[in-house]
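Milestone M4 deliverable, item 7.
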Amino acid sequence: MNGSMPKAYLRLRGGVNSFNVDILMRNDTHSESGLGRLSVRSLELVRHKGKAAGYTARRHGHRAKHELIYVDYGGILLQCGRRRFGLKTGDCFLVRGGQSHSFRGRAGKPFDFLNIVYRGRVPGTLAERVLHLDAEERRLIMALKEESLAMAPQYEQMLLLKLNELFVRLERRGPGWRQAVPVAAENQLRHRARLVGHALGYLRAHVSRPLDVGVVCEHTGVSPSYLRALVRAETGMSLRQHLRAMRIEAAKHLLRESAENVTTTCYRVGYRSAPHFCTVFKRMVGMTPAEYARSLGTPSGP
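Output delivered:
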């Protein structure tokens, strides 16, 4: 790289489709933007991440910098000082600079969150309490995430504007603002279903190959631990169980539609041992491959 270090840089973990995105700000834009009187003067970090089941963020704090945590999927238990808070999908929380805190998934389940670290002030009415966002406020949060991913020209200024707008809207709330707002985060089903669909589609297209989670992750753009947790959370089955079911369905199709014997069918659907294939087939279908083939009568294939 040359001597002119860019003011911000993007780190992608797990490929271009990854939702693990870090944007580190190295500039203090408030001197140029005229936003010094607003809550957010400059951004240090905008990060969207998915965490696997069992993940815990160790206790930490940010000197002279404040932190916003927004739950995009699932829920978290947050320890802030001596107080404990439960956040669900669509909730956010503002941690004052210097305040130690830690968090983990509720009931040990996976979760996604947007994390913003900034310099400025924390509005007194918003600090260190669970904020239930309404539809417009969630739209701003999603716009922040999308702006950080796109990195279009002057995106730093757009991030500052949108985050300040969010704080202004939160401060404008009336006396009943603490009421819970029922939400389902806009991307909760969309992006998770898309990732799971890509992963299972890849398995289905390569059913005869050994399971290589790393290759599947390259295809979907997420980490192995996150993909395993996501598939199990969304479908109730592991990747290996899905592949096993796909192989047996493929074997049943071959036994129905062709005259191939059991051993050939076994190899074509990815098994390397005919006895093992027969054991798995019987456990899932209730009969051996040979019994299944006989039950069908004459195959329709050549």
